[in-house]
Amino acid sequence: MSWKSDIERVRAVAWKDLTVERHTKANFNSVAFLGALILMLFGFALGADSTALRTAAAGVLWLAVLFSGVLAFARSYQVELEGSALESLLLYPGSRWTIYAGKLIANLVFVGLMEIVIIPVALALYHLQVPDRWPTLIAVLMLGTFGFVTLGTFYAAMASRTRAREVLLPLLLFPMMVPVLLAATEASNALLNGDPMGNSGAWIRLLVAFDAIFFVASMFAFEYVIEE
Amino acid sequence: MTGVTIAEPASPSRTRAARFPGFGLIAALVFAATQAFALFTTPPDRDMGNLVKILFVHVPAAQVGLLSVALLLVSSVLYLWKRDERYDLVAASAAEVGVVLTALTLALGSIWGRPTWGVWWTWDPRLTSTAVQLLILVGYLALRSFVDEADRRAVWSAAVGILGGLNVPIVYMSVKWWRTLHQMQSSPSTVDPVYAWGLRLNDVAMLLLLIFFVRRRYEAARTQREAEEMLESAALGRPVPNEAANG
């Protein structure tokens, strides 16, 4: 098996998932809407004070991404369980990691698009101004999203095939997300306030390390997990 | 036909388990002795009074709890590598004992924090990362309880055990950066020398307890697995496998 055919397989799995998603847009729409709704609800909980909203904004945005994104991962395997599609997928020759990588890409696109929808909502609701260093902010967002989707895609492969999938996935995933949540929130907060202390660099390095460690570990462990 | 063959394979593990309470008794006695030693030979702290002595359970529980996470990580890796069910059961036992020790650490930290800091909970880095460690272990055990098929449960929980174990130091580091450290963790080298020996001895005693608990839990898990396998074989009308009793 050459790497070329592996890439082809990754692309095929990603394309398949995205096509299914495109044909049932309802799913994306409701998840994105839920994200915006969560932002709204946190606004009510925090009160209408501009300063309070601005201080909490980065954390709230990440919680909205986590709470709504977790629904996307479960769905990514639920489609495979109907009509034992997963068994057929496993019957195709080739490395198993390609299934993981394909689903990872599809989920990245899904969560990324969702963020594109809810970030403007967050900017408006939480009285935020786009800072000068917005490219770094986007990098933080992408790194955080990658860490989240890496573990989410991996845990969903197990959780969605158990009896208690609704509760099990967040129960497994959210404690693991603590470093991502802290790093992304702190780095975003620092950048939104101009980062006078230069704190964001350390958090970004932590995000990169987290992403690298868990991407490799998930790739390695997925081969075992998907076969059982 | 079935009566004799079913009863037989269970006996080796039963003798193993029966031998082990001796070790448990010793561990309990050692723990009681080191506790008594630490409590009675050390003076009260100038600021905290006798409250400081909560340290003799709190710190060993935290350290040995961390050790059980390491045991979970190592036995999970070994399971995926060797595919020997025993590693899976060791991992499960380590996680269960780890939950108890981590919860104990948190409870004692909370009891200590109330009079010292004036609050039951503070977002102190140690406290927070210990709480996250507890949640990771609980997640691991939750996954185990929701998967019925033994092989699948073993592989999945090994994967979750590896990722969770890897994350514990990362969580600690991130939380530490998040809250600048305001209470250095205690160890024999950071406490006043009068407390150091009490702490060291209690570390050893807690370690013995860890070994005892993990071992007991492991024996229980093995017996349970053997029973499951026998039920399965009986239900399928196959002769009862004798491999179940080996090892």
Characterise this structure.
The complex is a heterodimer of chains A (228) and B (247). Chain A has 228 residues and is mostly helical. Chain A has one domain. In chain A, 84% of the residues lie in helices and 0% in strands. Chain A has 9 helices and no strands. The longest helix of chain A has 32 residues. The mean pLDDT of chain A is 89. Chain B has 247 residues and is an all-alpha fold. Chain B has a domain of 151 residues. Helices cover 78% and strands 0% of the residues of chain B. Chain B contains 8 helices and no strands. In chain B, helix 4 packs across helix 7 and helix 5 runs antiparallel to helix 6. The longest helix of chain B has 44 residues. The N terminus of chain B is likely disordered. The chains are: A mainly alpha (228), B mainly alpha (247). At the A-B interface, helix 6, helix 7, helix 8 and helix 9 of A face helix 6 and helix 7 of B.
Topology overview:
The complex is a heterodimer of chains A (228) and B (247).
Chain A: H1 3-23, H2 26-46, H3 50-81, H4 85-91, H5 97-125, H6 134-159, H7 165-176, H8 178-192, H9 200-227
Chain B: H1 2-7, H2 11-19, H3 21-41, H4 55-82, H5 85-117, H6 125-146, H7 150-178, H8 193-236
Overall strand count of chain B: 0
Measured distance between first and last alpha carbons of chain B: 25 Å
Q: Classify the helix fraction of chain A into a percent range.
A: over 70%
Terminal Cα span of chain A: 23 Å
| Tally of DSSP β-strands of chain A | 0
Q: How many helix segments of chain B?
A: 8
Indicate the mean pLDDT of chain A: 89
Task: Supply Rg of chain A.
Answer: 18 Å
Content-based structural category of chain B: mainly alpha
Oligomer category: heterodimer
Give the SSE order of chain B as H and E letters.
HHHHHHHH
Helix segment tally of chain A: 9
Order of helices and strands of chain A: HHHHHHHHH
Radius of gyration of chain B, rounded? 21 Å
Overall tally of domains of chain A:
1
